[in-house]
């Protein structure tokens, strides 16, 4: 995310800190289609007055990685991974997984579930957790919606950019950028 170096990156799939337990990307970089990236920078800047910022977990994802997720996820948990026959909006460079952080320390704000929690706690409508956790989730959702992103029905951290249909599925590996 070269457009704003103050956006923090915690790219889980470039490390072993993800549900696959191993690095899936060749480099720790976040890519989005340009209009989505520009919108995300506006979200990040709008959060500054609250002392907050964005931390990105994932953005563009090559199609072959979506296929690996599907192939290695048990059938009972496949609601949480994209079917490679349709592809993911991450494959189009128009989806981003992210959370809020303290602008100064970079510490992630508490949310009702961790990233990639494959349970009902991940839903943006989950009513459990603490009042503060739910309030943080709402701040993130409202800030993203204000710039044209829509939250995923099952994952509070996943947002799709409104123009995603205009972009095709890509399978360009990270090593090609
Ligand atoms: Zn996602």
Could you name the key traits of this structure?
177 residues; 14% strand; globular; Muramoyl-pentapeptide Carboxypeptidase, domain 2; binds zinc ion; 5-stranded mixed β-sheet; 3 helices; 5 strands; alpha+beta
Provide a descriptive summary of the structure in words.
The protein has 177 residues and is an alpha+beta fold. It has one domain (8-172): Muramoyl-pentapeptide Carboxypeptidase, domain 2 (2-Layer Sandwich). Helix content is 21%, strand content 14%. The chain is built from three helices and five strands. It has helices spanning 34-46, 63-72, 131-145, and strands at 8-9, 52-58, 95-102, 149-151, 158-161. Strands 1-2-3-5-4 form a five-stranded mixed β-sheet, covered by helices on one side. Strand 4 and strand 5 (158-161) form a beta hairpin. The relative contact order is 0.19. The model has no long low-confidence stretch (mean pLDDT 95). The protein binds zinc ion. Zinc ion binds at residues 58, 90, 95, 97, 158.
Give a brief rundown of this model:
By secondary structure, the protein is of the alpha+beta class.
Which whole number gives the mean pLDDT? 95
- Most strands sheet: 5 strands, mixed
Number of helix segments? 3
Residue stretches low in confidence (pLDDT < 50, at least 5 long) are: none
CATH class: Alpha Beta
List the helices and strands and how they pair.
Elements: E1 8-9, H1 34-46, E2 52-58, H2 63-72, E3 95-102, H3 131-145, E4 149-151, E5 158-161
Parallel strand pairs: 1-2
Antiparallel strand pairs: 2-3, 3-5, 4-5
Zinc ion is lined by residues 58, 90, 95, 97, 158.
């Amino acid at each position: 995310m070269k457009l704003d170096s103050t956006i923090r990156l915690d790219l889980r799939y470039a490390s072993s800190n993800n549900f696959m337990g191993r690095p899936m990307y060749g480099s720790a970089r976040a890519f989005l289609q340009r209009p989505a990236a520009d919108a995300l920078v506006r979200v990040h800047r709008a959060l500054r007055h609250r002392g907050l910022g964005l931390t990105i977990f994932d953005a563009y994802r090559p199609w072959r990685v979506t296929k690996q997720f599907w192939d290695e996820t048990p059938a009972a948990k496949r609601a949480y991974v994209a079917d490679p026959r349709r592809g993911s909006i991450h494959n189009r460079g128009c989806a981003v997984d992210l959370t809020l952080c303290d602008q100064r320390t970079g510490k992630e704000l508490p949310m009702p579930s961790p990233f990639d929690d494959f349970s009902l706690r991940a839903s943006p409508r989950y009513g459990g957790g603490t009042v503060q956790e739910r309030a943080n989730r709402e701040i993130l959702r409202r800030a993203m919606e204000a710039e044209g992103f829509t939250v995923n029905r099952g994952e509070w951290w996943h947002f799709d950019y409104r123009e995603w249909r205009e972009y095709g599925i890509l399978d360009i590996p990270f090593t090609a950028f």
